[in-house]
Amino acid sequence: MIERSLNQIIKDALAEDIGSGDITTNAAVDSNLLAHGEFLVKQDGIVAGFEVLKKTIEIFDPSLQLTFFANDGDRVSAKTVVAIVKGKAASILTVERTALNFFQRMSGIATMSRLFQDKISHTKAKIIDTRKTVPGLRTIDKIAVKLSGCSNHRFGLYDMFLIKDNHIEAAGSITKAIKLCKKYRKKKNLKYKIEVETTNLQQVEETIGCGVDIIMLDNFNLTDMRKAVELINGKCLIEASGNVNLDNVKQIAETGVDFISVGAITHSAKALDISLELKLVK
């Protein structure tokens, strides 16, 4: 499903940019002119998305040849050429922006994700993403997180039970919501995990008694988070969530949680500055 989704995302992006044709390139560039384009990273960061870059170029023009000089997840310095594409100059110019948009965004997400993970590398905690992604680009965003060395949370609403505050309100209580999810899971013969969002220690205690796979500690202060970790005592996995930033993530990780979800790594990541420099083949 992800493979088909990725191909469709790329085709849609190409159609969005090219439309009925690249009129500037069609008018100004000889269709037989050969060139190569250097993908130049212009700031320090983590590069990610080489396979997406390759797919984008192959889908648009399979005759273009792409060579990589770095790997996904590599830390690179400014002024580093990480890839070269060779072939028809017109094709390179037309596919350039779509290819760069994917590559820059994915590298930006990977760079921010790695910043968070590096802050907590001395702990067992793992940075995970959320569903706060650009609509239609979730596959791209989550691949970038994974390539950074961090982990993905659920992909969508269909691959994990996540009981949140509004579900609890609608069901009547945490206990009722968990029982209903377990009943549904059994009825549908599903293997998906059950996670519950909690906002206080009383809810944590109630959730522990029901037996779930993951307890989310949502917007807990550090003192209550430590108490929650002691209460849970290995009975299930623990996710910390809410208002996580680079200034507090280290302290959160040191409470003993297993996962720290960070929406910012996808919804607020700044694209890594990468350009494509065209040079004619002489």
Describe this structure in words.
The chain is of the alpha/beta class and 282 residues long. The protein folds into 2 domains: 2-111 and 271-280, Alpha-Beta Complex (Aldehyde Oxidoreductase, domain 3); 118-267, TIM Barrel, CATH 3.20.20.70. It is 45% helix and 20% strand. It contains 11 helices and 12 strands. The chain has helices at 2-18, 23-28, 50-60, 89-119, 138-147, 165-171, 174-187, 201-210, 222-232, 249-253, 264-267; strands spanning 34-41, 45-46, 65-68, 75-76, 80-88, 126-128, 161-163, 194-198, 214-218, 237-241, 259-261, 274-280. The strands form 3 sheets. The protein has a 6-stranded parallel beta sheet with strand order 6-11-10-9-8-7. Helix 9 (222-232) links the parallel strand 9 and strand 10 (237-241). Helix 1 crosses helix 3. The protein is elongated. The two termini are 43 Å apart.
> What is the chain-wise order of helices and strands?
HHEEHEEEHEHEHHEHEHEHEHE
Beta-sheet strand percentage? Answer: 15-25%
> What is the CA-based Rg, rounded?
23 Å
**Regions with pLDDT < 50 over 5+ consecutive residues?**
none
Number of DSSP-assigned strands: 12
**What is the residue-mean pLDDT, rounded to a whole number?**
97
What is the name of the CATH superfamily of the largest domain?
Answer: Aldolase class I
Number of helices: 11
What is the terminal-to-terminal distance? 43 Å
Indicate the CATH class of the largest domain: Alpha Beta
Q: What does the largest sheet look like?
A: 6 strands, parallel
> Which percent bin holds the helix content?
40-55%
User: What CATH architecture of the largest domain do you see?
Assistant: Alpha-Beta Barrel
Which fold does the CATH topology of the largest domain refer to?
TIM Barrel
Task: Kindly give the count of domains.
Answer: 2
Strands ordered across the widest β-sheet: 6-11-10-9-8-7
The chain-level structural class is: alpha/beta
User: Judging from the principal axes of the Cα atoms, what is the shape?
Assistant: elongated
